[in-house]
Design a protein that fits this description.
The structure holds two protein chains of two kinds. Chain A is built from eight helices and eight strands, in the order αααβββαβαβαβαβαβ. Chain A is of the alpha/beta class. Chain A has one domain: Aldehyde Dehydrogenase, Chain A, domain 1. The termini of chain B are far apart. By secondary structure, chain B is an alpha/beta fold. In chain B, α10 links the parallel β12 and β13. Chain B has two domains: 269 residues, Aldehyde Dehydrogenase, Chain A, domain 1, CATH 3.40.605.10; 183 residues, 3-Layer(aba) Sandwich (Aldehyde Dehydrogenase, Chain A, domain 2). Classes of the chains: A alpha/beta, B alpha/beta. The interface between A and B is large, with 39 and 50 residues. β8 of chain A pairs parallel with β18 of chain B.
Chain lengths: 215, 493
């Protein structure tokens, strides 16, 4: 879907001060990134799960599970690539999100919402808001039904405020202020794991070594 | 209406209840009259010149005087940890680091009896638990993580694992030695140095561990153990040269720590409170389930963050389960923690006993029905009868708030969906228990319960290889297993 509306995105990026070459590169990268994370949806769990060799007669395993609802303040500069790079690993990992689009370059974000809509992504999985960062960040950080917050700028005062407010319900805070989204390091399954919890399950094994039966 | 005849045979434990005392000997452990701070490989007098008393909660007798570290002492410890990190520990080949950690593990095993006795005298937990659970599991944690030191490259695909630097670690009073092991072992294996503060009420086994670390010839400053109260902990949290805070304790203090480090680059793992749901379905093996519930809430007097403090019983077996629980409650031996027959020892402190009693009162005021065992309590020391409440509402404070004592709130349910919703209706998400004979039901529950550790047909099991930690307000990060390594490393490409 993103690919089908490539021309529109390139056009919009150019209206937001990109050159044609830059814009085309960014849109292509966004498409690639979505394909990349789509592939991870049913693979990262195996990579980060474990069967744990406990010393007692129990079967014990750990698997990643989504943290829940993630509130993300998308990067201000890479208006489209940043948005995609933040959203993709969050939803690939099974979370839902509320995303605040770049306030200076919100155009692509709105068009991107149309892409999500026509891709039949279930309603509510990705919610995109536009507005001023300074004004909206407090609500992203202190909402009691949000489980994690993401912030992508290096503004230390806002970082501090997000961390302080997140303490209200022990939100996980993820800061992506040093990530170069256009680089190869801008994608990896470790981004998915930033929004996963590890759940460990125990169950007794009957009669190991014939010592005793039952639970 | 004629009274229903109770055909169920009831075990008689009368003879067992009068078991002759079998006390462990105090003389097998040496407790010094006074303990100083363990900084840079030496025991040093505190800059504050102040000491506080550590008492035996079972008898209220003074055990020892413990140094109260102030900010200057914390600074000294952090400096020692920094120097050790830069000059020795970071540079040491990982396989050599592992040998030191193995040595600590072996020495804990060698002195297991002494550790168990001191843990029980200082904290009030039954000697049976400190001997059979706390001390061996602590040694096992060192054994487990020692082996990871030179294998980290296999733990994180496509990444390099670098140590964080100095880990400031603050641990609670419910499992003093075990929590020290959970914190120190992975930190050292990953190449970090440590400043650890045990809880004010239970410093002794951590200080004994310091003696072992000294004897093990660990390079000075790699592990520093400083004692004190909340102010000492705050000084560690706020010290600018500490790179990581690992905290186990209450959600309230966890939030304070999260706020305190907000303006810094410090990493944190928080293992906080819990209000675990233990769920019994009508097809469960009821006797085993009842044992699991008893172990779930009365293990360590209920001073367990993952204690199964909310019990949900399916309606058709509710009466049977409650009756069995009451019968079993009567057989629990409450008293001298040093007695090897004791099931429930002393409450850790007078303050904690007051908190528990406050909640017992709240439960009654909220209209719940209370049942306590008829056990006689020793006249001195801090004790609480095992207590269960029925007729509890989901909104009751005894069903919502963590009590951290031997108090169980019981509710009933009809359907799977109902109990999942009730169990998840909590700000906490540390652990949960499910009792049923049906495998598919187990997995339906275990995947839908929002908690970090789920015990199916068992409860309160721990192992160094098994990750432990919470969802939601029970904290973040894991301790134990492969996943526990993440808490002490930076991943680089």
């Amino acid at each position: 879907m993103l690919e089908g509306r490539k021309a529109q995105f390139v056009d919009e990026l150019m209206k937001q001060d990109s050159t044609k070459a830059q814009a085309e590169k960014e849109v292509n990268l966004c498409i690639e990134r979505f394909i990349y994370y789509s592939g991870w949806c049913d693979k990262f769990q195996q990579l980060y799960s474990s069967v744990n060799p406990v010393a007692s007669s129990h079967f014990n395993f750990s698997v990643p599970e989504p943290t829940g609802v993630v509130a993300a303040i998308a990067p201000q500069q890479d208006a489209l690539l940043g948005l995609v790079s933040v959203i993709a690993p969050i939803i690939a990992g099974g979370n839902t999100c509320i995303v605040l689009a770049s306030s200076t370059k919100p155009l692509c974000a709105v068009t991107f919402a149309e892409v999500l809509n026509s891709s039949d992504l279930p309603g509510g999985v990705v919610n995109i808001l536009t507005g001023k960062v300074a004004e909206l960040v407090p609500y992203f950080a202190d909402h009691m039904d949000v489980n994690a917050t993401v912030f992508c700028e290096s503004d230390s005062a806002i970082q501090k405020m997000i961390k302080e407010k997140s303490a209200l319900n022990v939100k996980r805070v993820v800061l992506y202020d040093k990530i170069k989204w256009a680089d190869a390091t801008g994608q990896s399954p470790y981004f998915i794991m930033d929004f996963q919890e590890i759940k460990t399950t125990w169950h007794p094994i009957e009669n190991i070594g014939g010592a005793k039966a039952g639970y | 209406m004629a009274k229903a005849k109770n055909n169920t045979l009831k075990l008689k434990f009368d003879s067992a209840r009068n078991l002759a005392p079998a006390p462990e000997s105090k003389s097998a452990a040496k407790i010094d009259p006074q303990y100083d701070l363990f900084i840079n490989g030496k025991f040093e007098k505190p800059a504050s010149k102040e000491y506080f008393a550590s008492i035996n909660p079972a008898t209220e007798e003074k055990l020892s005087m413990i140094a109260e570290a102030n900010a200057a002492d914390v600074n000294k410890a952090v400096k020692a940890a920094r120097a050790a990190y830069d000059k020795t520990w970071k540079k040491m080949p990982p396989a050599e680091r592992a040998k030191y950690i193995y040595r600590i593990a072996r020495m804990i095993q060698e002195r297991a009896r002494e550790f168990a006795i001191i843990e029980t005298l200082d904290g009030g937990k039954p000697i049976r638990e400190s001997r059979d659970f706390d001390v061996p599991t602590a040694a096992n944690h060192f054994f487990y993580y020692a082996g990871w030191a030179d294998k980290l490259e296999y733990a994180f695909p496509n990444r390099r694992a670098e140590p964080l630097g100095i880990a400031g670690q603050i641990i609670p009073w419910n499992f003093p030695l075990l929590m020290a092991a959970w914190k120190i072992a992975p930190a050292l294996a990953c190449g970090n140095t440590v400043v650890l503060k045990p809880a004010e009420n239970t410093s002794l086994t951590a200080l004994k561990l310091a003696e072992i670390i000294q004897e093990a010839d660990l390079p000075p400053g790699v592990v520093n153990i400083i004692t004190g109260g909340g102010a000492t902990g705050a000084a560690i949290v706020n010290h600018p040269d500490v790179n990581k805070i690992a905290f186990t304790g209450s959600t309230e203090v966890g939030k304070i720590i999260q706020r305190a480090i907000a303006g810094t680059d410090k990493k944190a793992t928080l293992e906080l409170g819990g209000k675990a749901a233990n769920i019994i379905f009508d097809d469960a093996p009821l006797d085993q389930a009842v044992e699991g519930v008893i172990n779930g809430i009365f293990f360590n007097q209920g001073h367990v963050c993952c204690a199964g403090s909310r019990l949900y019983v399916q309606e058709s077996v509710f009466a049977a389960v409650v009756r069995k629980l009451k019968d079993r409650l009567e057989t629990l031996i409450v008293g001298d923690p040093m007695d090897k027959n004791t099931d429930i020892g002393a409450i850790n402190s007078r303050e904690q006993l007051n908190i528990i009693n406050k909640y017992i009162k709240i439960g009654q005021q909220e209209g719940a029905d209370m049942y306590q065992s008829s056990a006689n309590l020793p006249r001195k020391g801090f004790y609480c009868r095992p207590t269960i409440f029925t007729n509890v509402a989901q909104s009751s404070r005894i069903a919502q708030e963590e009590i951290f004592g031997p108090v169980l709130a019981i509710q009933s349910f009809r359907t799977d969906d109902e109990v999942i919703e009730k169990a998840n209706n909590s700000p906490y998400g540390l652990s949960a228990g499910v009792w049923t004979d049906k495998g598919s039901k187990i997995f339906n529950l275990t995947t839908k319960l929002r908690a970090g550790v789920i015990w199916a047909n068992t409860f309160n099991k721990f192992d160094p290889t098994s990750p432990f930690g919470g969802y939601k307000e029970s904290g973040y990060g894991r301790e134990g297993g492969l996943h526990g390594l993440s808490a002490y490393i930076n991943l680089t490409k």
